[in-house]
Amino acid sequence: MPFSSAASTSVPVHEPNHAESLAEELDLQHVGDDANHWVVHVLGIYNDGHHLWVQIAPNADGTPSIVLRLSMVATARHALATLASLSLSSLVSARIVPVMCTV
User: Fold this and answer.
1) Is the pLDDT of residue 99 over 90?
2) pLDDT of 58 over the 80 cut
3) CA-wise closest residue to 50 among 71, 73, 66, 76
4) What pLDDT does 46 receive?
5) For the sheet containing 96-99, what is the strand order?
6) pLDDT over 70 for what percent of the chain?
7) What are phi and psi of 47, to 5 degrees?
8) pLDDT exceeds cutoff 90 at 21
9) Are 83 and 91 in contact (CB under 8 A)?
10) Measured between alpha carbons, how far is 62 from 43 in angstroms, rounded to an integer?
11) 39 burial class (0-12, 13-18, 19+ CB within 10 angstroms)?
12) In the predicted model, what is the mean pLDDT of the chain?
């Protein structure tokens, strides 16, 4: 009796979407200098179809956390430039930081 071969099923290759790519580009990036120096730790990201919401923290334990609200065309460079323009203490008190948002 001949052995029948089943049709092979290919596993789809996962290609990162814009939100995942942005999170990867932001994670562990250094912001600021001297006393205002900190490292971005990405905690989560959400795409509501209008904006990307990225929760970040200056500490690996997630405290205190900040949420970036990015326009859909904003890049990691835009986010990092926004973060660098503000002191860490002002970011923490803001809680939600808009990046390239018109409203």
Assistant:
1) yes
2) yes
3) 71
4) 94
5) 41-47, 51-57, 66-71, 96-99
6) 83
7) -110, 115
8) yes
9) yes
10) 7
11) middle
12) 86
Q: In this structure, are strands 51-57 and 41-47 parallel, antiparallel, or unpaired?
A: antiparallel
Extents of the domains making up the chain? 18-99
3-state secondary structure of 53: strand
What's the token pair of residue 29?
């990036």
**Given the structure tokens 């690996």, which residue do they identify?**
60
Query: Residue 54 in 3-state DSSP?
Result: strand
Structure tokens at 101: 């948002």
Distance CA 50, CA 40 (A): 23
User: Above 70 in pLDDT, residue 7?
Assistant: no
With 0.70 as the threshold, say if the pTM is over it: yes
Alpha carbon distance 83, 97 (integer Å): 9
Distance of alpha carbon 91 from alpha carbon 28, whole angstroms:
17
Distance of CA 79 to the CA centre of its chain: 9
Closest to 78 measured CA to CA, from 90, 66, 63, 68: 68
